[in-house]
Amino acid sequence: MAELDLLEMFAKTVEAHGVKTAISANRVLLPDSGLAFILSVRPCPPRPDLTLIQLDIDTSAPLLAEHAEHVVRHSFGGLGASRSEAERDAFCRFILGPFHALLSALGNHQCPADRTEWLDWRGCSGSWRVCTSPLLVHGDDPSSVGYSTFADRLRELFVSEVPAGLHWCEVFFASLEGKPTAAEVRLDNSLWPRASEALASWQVSPQKGYRSGRHFLVALPN
Fold first, then answer.
1. Is residue 112, in this structure, part of any structural domain at all?
2. Tell me, what's the pLDDT at 1?
3. In 3-state terms, what secondary structure has residue 110?
4. Sheet with 51-60, edge to edge strand ranges
5. Number of domains in the chain
């Protein structure tokens, strides 16, 4: 169950975008669009110097009612000197990453400076209007990652392999001291092996420190 302070912080953030909200149990509801964010916090093994948590956020929307998955699932790690700081850290990652793409594509609310981008994709099985989040990078300058090369490959795989209809896709990659620790692409909440292999082939890890990157998109059928 999410703490009330976290739910209230979430609601205030959404309301700052000019959208009405309501809190019910562990959900932040957007009555005008039917969008709902379902929050859950799980503690991670304790460390003497830091508090670690995992924030799980499921997003439901009327557009997902007939989709097999029904919700878009996200998980973010958070760290801080206290649980509240760790929750805030994870929450900020969600807001800076997929939040605006979800709000725009599934909630029909466009913010003037939300940094999302709309693209047109066409393939053998259909065509889509695609809302993409900004690339969220931790431990490096996003402009130095060279992500556009993989983004082009992701589009090629999507239009050639994905059936018609509404879909969403999340990309996550990470490395530590020059060694890859994660290269994962999920399509409609499930691991997409071929795209994950392409991500692993693309990823060039910096030799020092930790780096991670996350990218999210929602594809609406035309």
1. no
2. 46
3. coil
4. 22-24, 27-30, 35-43, 51-60, 71-80
5. 2
Residue 26 identity: N
Has residue 143 been placed in a domain? yes
Longest distance between any two alpha carbons in the chain, whole Å: 54
Residues spanned by the domain of 43 = 4-107
Residues 6+ apart with CB under 8 A from 106: 33, 35, 59, 61, 63, 64, 72, 218
3-state secondary structure of 31: coil
Residues 173, 133 contacting (CB under 8 angstroms): no
Q: Residue 98, by phi and psi: left (phi above 0), alpha (psi -120 to 50) or beta?
A: alpha
Q: Which residue has the tokens 């499930």?
A: 190
pLDDT of res. 207: 84
Residues 173 and 212 in one domain: yes
In the block, tokens 């801080």 appear at: 80
Rounded-to-integer distance, Cα 63 and Cα 107, Å: 9
Side-chain-side CA neighbours of residue 156 (13 Å): 10
Give tens-digit pLDDT for 10-56.
999 999 988 999 999 899 999 999 999 999 999 898 788 899 999 99
In this structure, is residue 98 part of a structural domain?
Answer: yes
